């Protein structure tokens, strides 16, 4: 797979979001941008806190699960542990929740502001082990640029 220029993507995210701070507007554009620009991705989007777990937010890709019940799935794991979770083979992760059987690997980055998780940004890939260390660093940088540009 061709190397991704995450520095360029980060500059493009800052440009895309510079005139707006609304959460829904920026989350929608951010998810659509990442889904369009990253290779080997079949879903990119947000899950946001709800009383009973996480609820679907803006995304790019096929329709996905609306609700992820508290304590279940990779997104909740990243949210609860306040750290990025990378799964190389989702079929081997007992707590993975399938929204699309095409998904083979996954990365979930929590939206951290002042030590609090305000939701997660989730990416799925149809390839095994799609998300390497440089992708984790790059995607965390993109999420940080989104958070700086957006009112939470
Ligand atoms: N796989 C996620 C659910 C969300 S979908 O991948 C879009 C999880 O286990 O939390």
What class do helices, strands and sheet pairing give? alpha+beta
CATH superfamily descriptor: GAF domain
Report the C-alpha radius of gyration, rounded: 14 Å
Seen as an oligomer or otherwise, the chain set is single chain
Helicity, as a percent range: 25-40%
- Give the ligands present: methionine sulfoxide
Characterization of this structure:
- The chain is globular.
- Helix 1 (6-17) packs antiparallel against helix 2.
- A hairpin with a 5-residue loop joins strand 2 and strand 3 (67-69).
- It has helices spanning 6-17, 23-37, 73-81, 133-149, and strands at residues 43-50, 53-61, 67-69, 85-87, 105-113, 116-125.
- The protein is built from four helices and six strands; from the N terminus they run H-H-E-E-E-H-E-E-E-H.
- It starts with 5 loop residues before the first helix and ends with a helix.
- The protein has 152 residues and is of the alpha+beta class.
- It binds methionine sulfoxide.
- Methionine sulfoxide binds at residues 43, 64-65, 68, 73-75, 96-97, 99, 103, 106, 122, 124.
- The site of methionine sulfoxide (SME) has 14 residues, from helix 3 and strand 6.
């Amino acid at each position: 797979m061709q190397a991704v220029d995450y520095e360029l993507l980060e500059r493009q995210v800052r440009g895309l979001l510079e005139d707006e701070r609304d959460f829904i507007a920026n989350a929608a554009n951010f998810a659509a941008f990442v889904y369009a620009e990253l290779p080997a991705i079949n879903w990119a989007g947000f899950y946001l806190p709800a009383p009973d777990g996480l609820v679907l937010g803006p995304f790019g890709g096929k329709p996905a699960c609306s609700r992820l019940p508290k304590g279940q799935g990779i997104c909740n794991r990243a949210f609860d542990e306040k750290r990025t979770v990378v799964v190389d083979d989702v079929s081997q992760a007992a707590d993975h929740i399938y929204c699309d059987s095409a998904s083979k690997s996954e990365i979930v980055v929590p939206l951290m502001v002042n030590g609090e998780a305000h939701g997660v940004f989730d990416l799925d890939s149809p390839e095994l082990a799609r998300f390497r260390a440089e992708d984790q660093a790059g995607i965390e940088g993109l999420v940080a640029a989104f958070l700086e540009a957006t009112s939470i």
